[in-house]
Structure formats: structure tokens, C-alpha cells
Amino acid sequence: MLQIHPVNSSIETWNPSIEGTILSLFDPSPQAENWEKNVDQQILKIAYQFLRQIEASSDIELPDLMAQFQEFHLPDDASSFDTYLESLTKTLIPHSIHTSSPRFIGHMTSALPHFMRPLAKLMTALNQNLVKTETAKAFTPYERQALGILHRSLYQFPDEFYDYHLQNSHSTLGMVVSGGTSANFTAIWCARNSSLGPKGDFKGIEKEGLAAALEFYGYQGQVIIGSSLMHYSFEKAADLLGIGSQGLIKIPASRHNRIDLDCLRETVAECRAQKQHIIAIVGIAGTTDSGGIDPIEEMAAIAQAAGVHFHVDAAWGGPLIFSQQHRHKLAGIEQADSVTIDAHKQLYAPMGIGMVMFQNPQLAKAIEKHACYTVREGSADLGQRSLEGSRPAMSLFLHAGLHAIGLKGYEFLIDEGIRKTQYMAEQVRLSPEFELLAEPEINLLIYRYIPEQLREFVAKGELTETQNQAIDLVNEQLQKAQRHAGKTFIARTITQTTRYGPMAIVALRAALANPLTTEADIDAVLDDQIALATQLNLGGSQF
Ligand SMILES: *Cc1c(COP(=O)(O)O)cnc(C)c1O
Fold first, then answer.
1. Spacing, Cα 296 to ligand 1 middle (Å)
2. CA of 129 to the centre of ligand 1 (A)
3. Atom number in ligand 1 closest to CA 286
4. Same domain as 117, residue 207
5. 407 within a domain of the structure (yes/no)
6. What are the N6-(pyridoxal phosphate)lysine sites (modified residues) in this protein (predicted)?
């Protein structure tokens, strides 16, 4: 017999106001639209107030902020959004970092063009999931188009190539991922799987695993080779892909922050003699700490001769391809089997988007996966060949940037950043208070502050190790003091490729990508450092 249960039998104990409140949160009614318009206006006001600040951050200490985020009970009742927003304006927003400040020139995160902000709203409103066409439809060919445009800028294949591959679901010209880390990982993953693929009875590393693959192919182990300046994302890739960080061979970089080619050739020969499988050789186009660019053309030739996958990590420097004046610095990049480019760095998209590009549109087949309820074989689903499953339509920012900024716009941005870096390098060179630690290749600059008593030794190039250590300490203190004061910001790194030999030296690092930064801002940042050093009497007494 059919038993009929009364709907909501617990209605008496159920708070109807919760139903009303929660359902109204989802309802796209005209009232909701009005509400949102109102909130948008408030948020715009808050955002622009934030964006117009000159200072890089507030000077509140982190422990004091931690004290404000100590509550760990989930609230029983929903608070009104107004109340919630108000709390954000008190505790969160004033103490976030003003990454678009013209005087925040230490990191790779900077100002965004204004059209990115409404696009972020549109992305959330449409809430597409790029894992499959069933949840993305037009966004699938749209994303492929953006990747194709970038691919053509990079590899410059003839039009017929793009006519054939751009919207061909069997081809993968590139992938949109969450950033440079995932892009590097994906590239190494493809290199690993395609170089240890199925052959004869062996079903490939993907099915049989690493141990079986090495045994089948007769290898003793596997390695990735790059310079000592490789980004630490390769440590993650080596770990996750079963290579191990010991398998990450780091060849010393020269004084120009480039890989030593002779050492690379020797290492390749040694690995082969010792039956170590080389999964990839990695070239860097813009090292994270100083912007050095590896000799890509020569590295490509070495990789090609050895039959090894050549990956170029151009997370930062990739957009140099848009500059007629500077593109030559990346000569040979079109020979790379894969290339990483971050859109959230020098393509001026908001945080959370990077790309990996493939020279061979079939390479990513090596990592293809299917599931019967989604990403079906032979479909156009982008999730077939990506590490991530559900994925937002971040490609909106890439596609929009490529159209609303365009080739000439990106060229201007790149050229300007490099020009301003040259200006800053010149100021550093002219100031006895500073020492330039490397001639800038692009728009990253490393230098350091020198206490007065040691300037004559620096001028003569006669610093002892102890004196260098004392300078390290001064620069550490100076960078921390500057960050804490919050008016201006420069990052800090360690370099081992200066005129002082392989000694590790603490360096101040500037990244000049913010189009709002003027020469006066650069002067202000340097003046701030001199003033702080004097004020703190850094290096005053210890020498
Ligand atoms: C920033 C950067 C990465 C990592 O990118 P994320 O987007 O931070 O994951 C990798 N390589 C280089 C050279 C970078 O500059």
C-alpha cells in the first residue's frame, strides 16, 4: 500500500523564516537585482577608495590581526549581508595589501585594468564549469580560441595549422590552469607520460606506474634538468610525479643568471651514461628572483639532440613575445615542446589564471582521462586533459585582455616596465647608498643597501665574507622595516650569482610591472629606504 507522508511533517519545529531568508538569497527576482545594484555601488566605492591609496599597506602587526580572527563557532543564524560587509570594511579590507599601489614594487602582483573587475562579476553570475561542454557550452570554443591566439603569438605556425587545430577537440594547443605552478606541473606530467608511454607489451607509465616503466625501458632513475634558479614549483612537480627532489638536477647559473651550457651538456651526457631517464630540460624565461633569461635557443638544440622534452618556464617573461624591442630575448622559445605563461602576472588578469602551451597539439593525449558521467571520450570536454576537474571561466580574463589590451597594448606595458627598470637601475648605480647586484635583463631588479662605513670597500670590490654577512643583516632589517611601515614595498631574495662568486647574498628585489608606477614613485621607494636605514641607524655601530 502506498503510504503518504505529509510534506514537511516537521513544519512546526521548522523555522519558516529560515526558508524565506535562504530561498530569497537564490531568487533572481527584480528585488534581488535592485539589492545587488545597491550593494555593487557600495562595493565599488569601497574598492575605489582602496585602489586610490598610495600606501602599500597598513602598519598593524600580524599578531594583532590574528587576535581579531579568533572566533571558531559557526554562527547559528545568518547575518544580514550589510552587517557582514560592514565587518569586512573594518577588519579585512583596510589591512589587505594594496598590490596595485604604484609604490608596491616588490612582487609580481600589481594593478589590473578596470574592465577585469566587472568581468569577475560576470564570471560569477554565469557560473560556468569548464570541465565539460554540458556545463560550459560556448565557453569551450571561447577558451580554445584564447589559447589559440596565444599559441600563434608564441609559435607562429601557418594559418592552416590553426584552421585545423583551433577547434579540433582531438587537439590541445594549450590549457588554462590556475597558475604557473599547475602549468609547470602539467608540462612535466605530459613529458613524463609521453616519454614512458605504451610500447609492445608495456601499457605505459600511466597504467603500470613508475617502477614498471623504468624497468621496461631499462632506466635506473629519472631526472629533470634546469638551472639552480628554477622556480620551486618544480620541486612540487618532482615530488608529485615520483621523480623526487633529488631527481631535480640544478645546474649552477652564471653571473648573468643563465644556465651554464657546458655544464648542461655534460650533465645530459652523464645522465645518459648512467641510464637516468631525462624527463625534461627546463629553460627559464625570466627567473623569479632576478629576471634572468636562459639561452633558450642553445638549450632547445641540446634537448633536441638528446631527444628530450624541452619546457620553458615563461610564467613571468612570456609576454615579452609581444614586444618588438624585447622579443629577441626569448629567441628559440618557439622550439619549446611546452611553455608556461601566467596570465595573472604580465597579462594583467586577476589572480588564479595561468596557461601551459604545447607545440605538438597531440602531446596532452598522454594525460587524457575519461569518466562515463562526464568528460566523455571523443567529446569536446576540456576536462579530459586537465589536472583540475571543475574549473571556473577564468579564460574570460585572458580572452578579454587579448582583445581589450591587444598586441600593441601589451607591447607598451612590457616596454614601459623594462624602461622604468632601467631608470631604477641607473638611480641605484648613481647612489653610493646602494649596490646593483645584476644588470637587469627585463623588469626585475636586484640590488642592496650598503652602510656608509662599507661603501669604499664596495667601490673597490673588496668586501670580506664577514662584511657581506653584516650587509645581509642590514638589508634584512631594512626590508622588514619598510614592509612594516607600509608606505612603500620592495621584496627580498637571496642571490648566489653576483661578482662576489657563489656566496649567498641578501638582495632587495623590485618588480616593475605596474603601469601606474612613475619615476617619482621609484625615487620615493629608494628615498624611503635611505631614510629608514638612517633612522634605524642600520650598520651605524657594528662596523
Ligand atoms: C610565478 C612563477 C611561477 C609560479 O607561478 P604561480 O602562478 O605562482 O603558481 C613559476 N615560474 C616562474 C618563473 C614564476 O615567475
1. 18
2. 24
3. 13
4. no
5. no
6. 345
Q: Is 288 in the pocket of ligand 1 (CB under 6 A)?
A: yes
Same domain, 224 and 295: yes
Could you count the other beta carbons within 10 Å of the beta carbon of residue 413?
A: 22
Q: Find out whether 366 and 348 touch, Cβ atoms under 8 Å.
A: no
Hey, CA dihedral for 246, 249, 251, 253, is it positive or negative? negative
Is the minimum distance from the CB of 181 to ligand 1 under 6 angstroms?
A: yes
Residue type at 480? Answer: K
312 lines ligand 1 (CB under 6 A): no
C-beta atoms surrounding 1 within 10 Å: 3
Q: pLDDT digits over 406-456, tens only?
A: 999 999 999 999 999 999 999 999 999 999 999 999 999 999 999 999 999
Report in angstroms the alpha-carbon separations of 276 from 213, 221, 227.
13, 5, 18
pLDDT tens profile 179-210: 999 999 999 999 999 999 999 999 999 999 99
Which residue, of 392, 427, 459, is where some domain finishes? 392
Could you identify the residue written with the cell 631526472? 223
Contact at 8 Å (CB) between 302 and 280?
Answer: no
Domain-terminating residue out of 358, 392, 426: 392
Instruction: Identify whether residues 169 and 308 lie together within a single domain.
Output: yes
Does residue 342 have its Cβ closer than 6 Å to ligand 1? yes
How many structural domains comprise the chain?
A: 3
- Are 47 and 177 found together in one domain? no
Domain-located, residue 363: yes
315 lines ligand 1 (CB under 6 A): yes
- Over 266-297, what HEC string results? HHHHHHHHCCEEEEEEEEEECCCCCCCECCHH
Q: Which atom belonging to ligand 1 lies closest to the Cα atom of 316?
A: 15
Rounded Cα gap, residues 238 and 185, in angstroms: 8
**Do the beta carbons of residue 310 and residue 304 sit within 8 Å?**
yes
| Residue 236 belongs to domain with CATH number | 3.40.640.10
* Minimum-distance ligand 1 atom for the alpha carbon of 181: 9
Domain hosting residue 508, numbered range: 415-536
What confidence tens digit (pLDDT) does each residue in 164-182 have?
Answer: 999 999 999 999 999 999 9
Under DSSP, the state recorded for 511 is E
The identity of residue 465, as a single letter, is E
Residue 382 falls inside a structural domain: yes
Query: Would the CB of 289 count as within 6 Å of ligand 1?
Result: no
Q: Pick from 340, 344, 388 the residue to mutate for probing ligand 1's pocket: most ligand atoms within 8 Å of its CB.
A: 340
Which is nearest to 336 in space by CA: 352, 348, 322, 318? 318
